[in-house]
Write a structure and sequence with these properties.
Layout: E1 3-7, H1 12-23, E2 27-32, H2 38-46, E3 51-55, H3 61-74, E4 80-83, H4 99-125, E5 131-135, H5 151-171, E6 177-182, H6 199-212, E7 221-223
Parallel strand pairs: 1-2, 1-4, 2-3, 4-5, 5-6, 6-7
Helix pairs in contact: 1-6, 3-4, 4-5
The protein binds NADP nicotinamide-adenine-dinucleotide phosphate.
Amino acid sequence: MSIAIVSGASRGLGLELVAQLLARRWRVIAGCRKTQVLRLTELAGARPGRLHVMPLDVASERSIAAFAGEASIVTDHVDLLINNAGVLHSGERYGQLVAKTLVESFTVNAAGALLLTQACTGLLRQAQAARVVNVSTVMASMARTETFRTPSYAMSKAALNMATRLLAAELGPQGICVASVHPGWVQTDMGGTAAPLSVEAAATALLDRAVTLGLDDSGRFIASDEGALLPW
Ligand SMILES: NC(=O)c1ccc[n+]([C@@H]2O[C@H](COP(=O)([O-])OP(=O)(O)OC[C@H]3O[C@@H](n4cnc5c(N)ncnc54)[C@H](OP(=O)(O)O)[C@@H]3O)[C@@H](O)[C@H]2O)c1
């Protein structure tokens, strides 16, 4: 049975990815800052032995190490790692920017994904054709940026895209595919109610894309719906 890790699984896209992976008959390790999430408890009860909910704060090296250690107790390999945990500080305005917001965004959105991937590399190596999906955003596209919006988010996700390139170079020769995937604009706490995509549709598209990724896609920045390549 294939096994996936999803970070930031307490709500939004991450929670729906967990539910849909389980429906697709995967085993799932769900990493959350708060593990007492009613829907995860229900999902675990409905699929005995197939969902492991573990504490994970991707901003903490200690938490990442503990999570990877706990994961290696329940599985000897990981086929899919979805670096989904992310933060967006809305309301940033030029002239009022503060370092705290920038630093926290880089810590979670870029460093967190890179360090979690590093910690899980031993498990990824043990899979036949492992994939790492870094959940990015078109707002990270430097080529497409023409307005001054959400700089902490945009800059940290651009750094995540660089992590994708670096990881693809390092892990590609070991048979592990690493890609940045833009899920679209999604109705979550982050995306808001005006977003065109339901969380269910976004998770379906992201998983459909994730399972087709091969080494040819490694190091790419891809839209999950039609698989179009996005400009860096
Ligand atoms: N929604 C969109 O339109 C959209 C578009 C493009 C890309 N994305 C990306 O998609 C991913 C999921 O976004 P979403 O819309 O589902 O956002 P969301 O509803 O705000 O959920 C964010 C998730 O990340 C978790 N998280 C935040 N900081 C964390 C940390 N330090 N350690 C572990 N988990 C942490 C949150 O956990 P807590 O519950 O503990 O806060 C929550 O589970 C993000 O990477 C986001 O950038 C979203």
